[in-house]
Write a structure and sequence with these properties.
The chain has a single domain, classed as Ribonuclease H-like superfamily/Ribonuclease H (Nucleotidyltransferase, domain 5, 2-Layer Sandwich), CATH 3.30.420.10. Helix 6 crosses helix 7 (173-189). It has a 5-stranded mixed beta sheet with strand order 3-2-1-4-5, with helices on both faces. The protein has helices spanning 65-71, 75-81, 85-97, 107-120, 135-139, 156-163, 173-189; strands at 3-10, 34-42, 48-55, 101-104, 132-134. It is 30% helix and 14% strand. The chain is of the alpha/beta class and 236 residues long.
């Protein structure tokens, strides 16, 4: 099985649910836009094949101050160095269609961000074709001490510190994807890879074959979906 480790930087803060707790669609007008995509393709032995590192040229949207404070991207930089969003999406889609399993530190965030951009471009969102592995959620089993001292999911920096990974290019899509790859390799070596699966906002579709409980062995398998039944409400 081959893997595509991805990371996205965006124009603003993403919303999974509104104030009432209702899931917000990926392509809702209030959602941020893709500003930077990093992808590292690896083979079955987790050896790097090639990488993709693309900025996106704004097509009417602007970077929000909160996002700039995190990733340092400006409207001017993106206008000069960014590619058309459809060209970026075409490369992403080719990766999915080639059978690579998506891996990300926060896979639900990154996959939802890409899903929203595909929908805005009038392209198939590849929802069912994008089973993914989240190394952030998998890392919870390690009970990593967070620098903040709080609970919940660890930050990328926390997991890197735990494994002794030198992560310098912080909050760049390429740099964060590379850090996620190093974490992925260590989880793989420890036999801690979960089943790659599609994540639904509500309940799984009918006739879905549930993956094994807990963590699998050193290889990841994809949950099989038979007679897939889905509604837009399940695939936010």
């Amino acid at each position: 099985m081959k893997y595509a480790i991805i990371d996205t930087e965006t124009s603003g803060l993403f919303r999974f649910k509104d104030a009432a707790g209702v899931p917000v669609p990926a392509d809702d007008p209030s959602q941020p836009r893709l500003a930077h995509l990093g992808v590292i393709l690896v083979d079955e032995q987790l050896q790097e094949e090639r990488s993709i590192d693309l900025y996106v040229r704004p097509d009417g949207w602007k970077m929000e101050p909160e996002a700039f404070a995190v990733n340092g991207l400006t409207d001017e930089f993106l206008a000069e160095n960014g590619a058309d969003v459809r060209d970026v999406l075409d490369q992403y889609v080719r990766v999915i269609d080639a059978g690579y399993v998506i891996v990300a530190f926060n896979a639900q965030f990154d996959c939802k961000q890409m899903r929203g951009e595909l929908r805005r471009a009038g392209m198939d969102d590849r929802f069912e074709q994008t089973p993914n592995i989240c190394v952030m959620r998998t890392s919870m089993a390690l009970k990593i001490k967070k620098a903040s001292g709080g609970g919940g999911f660890p930050k990328l920096a926390d997991v890197c510190a735990h494994f002794g990974i030198d992560h310098k290019a912080v909050h760049t899509a390429g740099g964060d994807a590379r850090a996620a790859l190093e974490i992925f390799r260590r989880l793989h070596a420890a036999g801690m890879l979960p089943t790659a699966r599609v994540h639904y906002a509500k309940t799984p579709p009918l006739h879905a074959v549930e993956p094994p409980a807990g963590l699998s062995g050193k290889g990841a398998t994809v949950a099989v979906v038979d007679e897939f039944v889905s509604s837009r409400s399940e695939r936010f």
